[in-house]
Design goal:
Spore Coat Polysaccharide Biosynthesis Protein SpsA, Chain A, about 300 residues, alpha/beta, two-stranded antiparallel sheet, 10-stranded mixed sheet
Length: about 300
């Protein structure tokens, strides 16, 4: 019986996706759905070769195909997209297959550059079971290259600055006071590992596809909270994350997509005064962050201007 569908998005990063799959493949009652976001390398072949070598049954299909993914009898389903949908639209495309399937209780959004401990999902499910209004459960995100170092313990958002801050970033996990962690008082959970209660989505809705990268899960949880749902963190769910693989080699794209999404989020949820403040502050922050690197600065400003020009 499958009760959790895992969604992993791949884009030109087959080896990381293989490692991610390997960390969760033994979990019971789980289906792994890999959406290839129109990779231009041999990612899909790398993933298929890994599954074949380990005698793991899988099926490949196209996003445009008519198969019902929940009816395909495979542990892993690889879905090919004919375009790069981004994070929100890609995850939504997969969740639409399962949103009306009563047997699928949860969807686990897991970044393909993440490695999950075998206790990560059980801990999130246990936390989900504590309150039926828990719609989202996050993990403790540790740094893959520095496994004792926290990358993120949830996210704080500063609306007048238009930026988010990763909680407990760079602190040592072993040295944190586990008895006083704010597991139920965190503003947002990080999307690198996010368990979603499927029954809640009929009221909350899927992610807003105006967000291509960044702020999509923040907007999702913001809307959920307005409906009385909660997001919490399972402090026994540990996931090791490499971080920002999709924009690491093209840093200017980080500034573009982050700034664009930040201003869209601000415009969507706050009044004109907050939007003005966020725009001015984010502009100054971009100058500092980019260290006046011309290309990154140009693209960062382009992201802000495109978001301000967008019809909403």
């Amino acid at each position: 019986m499958i009760d959790t569908n895992v969604i992993i998005l791949n884009w030109n990063n087959g080896p990381d996706t293989v490692a991610c799959i390997g960390s969760i493949i033994a979990l019971p009652n789980v289906r792994i759905t890999v959406l290839d976001n129109y990779s231009t390398d041999n990612s899909v072949e790398i993933i298929m070769n890994y599954l074949k070598a380990n005698a793991l049954y899988y099926i490949t299909t196209d996003l445009s195909a008519k198969e019902e993914l929940n009816e395909l009898p495979a542990k892993v389903v690889i879905v090919r997209s004919s375009e790069n949908l981004g994070f929100a639209k890609g995850c939504n495309a997969m969740m639409r297959y399962f949103i009306n399937d009563a047997t699928i209780k949860y969807t686990w959004l897991l970044n393909n550059d993440a490695i999950a401990k075998d206790t990560a999902l059980p801990a999130m499910i246990a936390k989900m079971g504590e309150d039926e209004r828990n719609a989202f459960v996050g993990s403790v995100i540790l740094d893959y290259n520095k496994p004792k170092q926290i990358q993120c313990f949830g996210v704080d958002y500063y609306k007048y600055f238009g930026v988010s801050k990763l909680i407990l970033k760079h602190e040592e996990w072993d040295k944190v006071d586990k008895k006083n962690l704010p597991v139920d008082k965190i503003e947002f959970q990080h999307g690198a590992s996010l368990l979603v209660r499927m029954s809640a989505l009929k009221e909350i809705g899927l992610m807003d596809e105006d967000f291509f990268l960044y702020f999509e899960e923040q907007d999702w949880q913001f809307r959920a909270r307005a409906l009385g749902y909660k997001n919490v963190i399972a402090d026994k769910s540990l996931v090791y994350h490499k971080g920002s693989v999709s924009t690491n080699t093209k840093k200017y794209l980080f500034y573009y997509y982050y700034n664009k999404s930040a201003i869209i989020f601000s415009r969507k949820h706050y009044n004109a005064l907050v939007v003005l403040s966020a725009t001015l502050m984010l502009t100054g922050i971009t100058f500092v962050r980019t260290k006046l690197t011309v290309k990154s600065l140009q693209w960062g400003m382009k992201g802000i201007l495109n978001a301000l020009a967008k019809k909403m």
